[in-house]
Amino acid sequence: MNEATTITSPPLVRHFRQILLWPLRVIPSQTEETHFSKYWELLETLGERCPWQEVADEFGDPADFQERHYKEFVTFLPYVQRFLYGEGAGRKGQTGYGKSPIRVFRRRDIAQMRVVLDEQAPPLLLQIAHVDLYFFYDLDIIILVLEFFANDIPLLIAEDILFKVGRAYPSFWEADGRGGECPQRVEWLSAMGETLAVSDYENRHRYLSFVCQHRSPNVSAHWEYLLWPLALHHSDREGVICYREIEYHRMPLLAYLSFSDPQALTRGDFARLALITKAGPSETLPYSETELAHFEQHYCNDKFWNPANPAMSSRYLCCGHAFVVIGKASERFFVDPETGLLGQFRHQYFLINLIAHFHKGTLMLFSEWLVEAISQLDIRDTDSVRTFKREVRRIMETFLRFNQRYWFHEVSNQVLVRDLFRLLTGHLNTDQIYQDVSTSVKEMNQYLDSDSLRRQANTVVRLTVVTTLGLIATVSTGFLGMNIFDETDNPGWVKFLIFTVVFIPSTLLVNYAVAHSKVLSDFLEALADKRLTWWDRLNILFRIWRKPR
Predict the structure, then answer these.
(1) pTM of this prediction?
(2) Does 233 fall in a domain?
(3) Which residue range is the domain that position 536 belongs to?
């Protein structure tokens, strides 16, 4: 009887919290000759007109530094600490990005999100915890972070929110015109309940025409509003910073769900939460049994999960795209927002997800840079070749700085954090992407080095030929300085005439030698080869006057 009740009555999520991370690529202005190192300064120039204002970090007044901040800091290894928090303010001679390579800007005018998931569902009001924009020194990458929460919602509704809310644009449209797999309506609300922006997933013509004109996807109107004064690349809106998507239209996410009894969830529930699939009945699986045969090994961390032991009721799920924490609402440690697992989810686990998706987004940025550089190369155009070399050198320099400043395989020696980071990066496949990008950058740099060596070799060949032929001209005309003919008493015009008679043929000989240096070089090599007859040597010389095939 209890089992039937569990199946027919969907579990209730006592506390639901979701964090969306949306990596975006910054498109530098065409008028700028160099890339910006500090894009956040463009927002600062707007002053009070900008809805984004910088967030001061916790390392200010020691009286305000809490135990939560300390636990977060010591979770990470020293080089990760320097990446996340920067160096101490008392360090002398500090240069570069300053205290931290990360700058965080926050909007405080959006307090709630009203979501209509489908036409049968009533509006759902979600509370906004914060809306942040992360900038990274020296890289054309920003990450939008949106955190929202709700209490006491059915599991089916929570699954629907996870599946639908974090979509930049629809991938298709239903027969009735609704955006496929998107909420029917999303609204940003102010603290007073005023509607600030509304989604437009149903506006099919807007998305189709944008892709047709610009070969780039559009984003929903409410996301555009959220990011302003940043503007979508190719859009009609003007902004201080232009951006475009760099990954999939489904935003990576973190989710925290507390239940009265998490062990009442079925294998189908866990699979839907881990893989972020459509909502469905608990007694069914979202995919076939064969597909999910190794689900627990691939997507679950069960260090603190044991169905036979009610005390071990916390489970971590990860598929790369999503990171989900599930636990018991009655456990104080699990729900404590400061020193408990909820606090860790919002800070330590958020940061390892931020690092992993920052790594992947940046590596994809390098890949796009290389494609753009090679696609604009025209080896017949000197200016194009020069621009290509300059761009590849810039990419190489930036990649070296990224490699030393931002890239690392381990973030913590704490066993759980270390294992979760490995699980996350394993699904994101960042190590393989790093190897591919690193190889491409090195191959491109090797090509430039070999091309420079080839050009230097050609220059040496030309100089050798000119020097050899010039030696003949020097010896032949040296009699002018050997007093064989005394021209001292002749008038100046006679001396000038003799100089001209020698200068003009010598100049023509040098130009001719440079123009045919390759064949003349082959001829000089043939002269040194005793195995060739004089006729063979002359045939090589006669190539100068033959038309190329």
Answers:
(1) 0.82
(2) yes
(3) 464-545
User: Is 151 inside any structural domain?
Assistant: yes
Q: How far apart are CA 156 and CA 413, in angstroms?
A: 37
Of 253, 280, 300, which closes a domain? Answer: 253
Placement of tokens 């924490």 in the chain: 325
| pLDDT at res. 475 | 53
Question: Tokens representing 460?
Answer: 């040496």
For residue 480, tell me if it sits in a domain.
yes
How many domains does the structure of the chain reveal?
Answer: 2
Q: Are 21 and 354 in contact (CB under 8 A)?
A: yes
Instruction: Give the per-residue SS3 of 442-487.
Output: HHHHHHHHHHHHHHHHHHHHHHHHHHHHHHHHHHHHHHHHCCCCCC
The alpha carbons of the chain give a radius of gyration, in whole angstroms, of 34
Provide the token pair at 258: 């507390």
Output phi, psi for 269, to 5 deg: -65, -45
* Residue-wise DSSP of 483-506: TSS--TTS-HHHHHHHHHHHHHHH
- Which range has the worst mean pLDDT, 131-135, 266-270, 514-518? 514-518
Q: Is 421 in contact with 430 (CB distance < 8 Å)?
A: no
215 Rama sector, left if φ>0, alpha if ψ -120 to 50, beta otherwise:
left
